[in-house]
Amino acid sequence: MLGISIYNLVLISYNCQQSLSLIIAQKPIINGHLPTEKPLHSRKPLILATFSLQLTNIGESMEISDLVDLDLAEKAASKGLCYHCLGRQFAKHGHGMSNKERGFYLRNALISHLADESAKQKVVREPSECWLCSGLFNELPKFSEIVIKKLDPYQYDTFLIGSKIDAEIMDREERLWGELGNQHYEPIKAEINREVGKLVEAKVKKTVNFENPDITAVIDTRFDSVELQITPLFLYGRYKKLIRGIPQTRWDCKDCWGKGCEKCNYTGKMYDTSIEEIIAKVVMDDTKGADHSFHGMGREDIDARMLGNGRPFILEIKIPIKRHLELKKLEKRINLHSEGMVEVSDIRKSSKEEVVAIKDAKVLKTYDVEVEFAEPIKHAKLKEVVRAFKDRTIEQKTPKRVLHRRADKTRKRMVKDIDIETVDDKKAKFTITGESGIYVKELVHGDEGRTKPSIAEYLDVKCNIKTLDVMHIHDEDGGK
């Protein structure tokens, strides 16, 4: 019948809203012989359970076959465990049923199996209060309502439930595991989280997400409270900086460190505004977030413009209340708010993983540099610069202008391409494509010998930077 020879089969049938058939397998036939006859109650039985469940509340059928040591089940049930806690000790036996259902079937199997009336009385019915959880599972509906109320102000598509359980309950559970020596249990936290999650999911019509939920609700079952962990909202885009003189991110005043003083006119800032603040103002108004961080794929100098295809960035909004945004309308409002200082494009949802990718990106960048020479330079000499620096590796010590905030070390960088447009014999426009991290100003003027070779050294003339613009970021999304 089952494909194996078994001895002393006892069939138990139990009828209620579900139908149950359990087959108790006592001992197998060994080498074609029956084992020595012993009283049924003195043997260590195994329950080979084939559950045929007609779950009226779910409307589906399932069949589960598994082995449970009835001695362990009896020992666990005699502790005075509710169906949830009894079933959870054998959670890895069988699939497609809840721990409560598993505990129900195990208890009834024990009632039918046990011959000793005193032992049977210990497991005959579910106790009014569970020795292990102290009735915690009766509070699942209450916990779910507390979570739903706490989630109500927030927009979200996915969520996850976590929990904090009384230390005494956790201690009792661990002691029970040790007494049973059973490795097929599930921790109480896992069941609380799952069962509350199912109740919340049914009410709010949102999806549980175990990897990256919008919100995690952590229930403290001791105090009937809920703490929300709100995942930041990440928005990717590209920005162009159309004017000079503003930094990428807010610079706190060096004297007061952002608190406000006479030097900074009590703004707490070195500059009136920044790319970050211009963009974030509109997004913060829409999301009602608590704070924000700006992550760019590198940054241009304050006196440089960012033109061309724009620089990739990700704006991180912390603790957003609203996250369902009309991104095209948001993009238009940012550009209107910027008043010609900044222009954004390609706004879309992003992730913390993409933040890491943007920060770590090593991409080529193309610059336009207007240079004025201290002495007239012949056009032919400038043409030699193109040949000399194309695909040339240079060595750059940390520029003097940033030594106060960066370590003094030597970096090797590749000048990939260079082109020159002569304006007159004392002015020229260089178009330079170089590796990520190249100091273009220092490539031109040499930084008093800290960059070698430099264009000034090659021409043997002092070079002054008039303007610098970033013209192209050669990332995958930015085109050629």
Describe this structure as you would to a colleague.
The protein is of the alpha+beta class. The protein folds into four domains: 6-123, no CATH class; 136-230, VC0802-like; 233-360, Alpha-Beta Plaits (2-Layer Sandwich); 365-478, 2-Layer Sandwich (Alpha-Beta Plaits). The chain has 13 helices and 20 strands. It has helices spanning 70-77, 83-88, 99-113, 117-123, 140-151, 167-180, 188-204, 275-287, 327-337, 352-360, 379-389, 440-445, 455-459, and strands at residues 6-7, 10-15, 19-25, 27-28, 46-55, 60-69, 158-164, 207-208, 215-220, 225-230, 233-241, 291-296, 305-318, 342-349, 365-373, 392-397, 410-424, 427-434, 451-452, 463-473. The strands form four sheets. Strands 11, 12, 13, 14, 15, 16, 17, 18, 19 and 20 form a ten-stranded mixed sheet that branches. A hairpin with a 2-residue loop joins strand 17 (410-424) and strand 18. Helix 5 (140-151) packs across helix 7 and helix 8 packs across helix 9 (327-337). The radius of gyration is 36 Å and the shape is elongated. Residues 1-66 have low confidence and may be disordered.
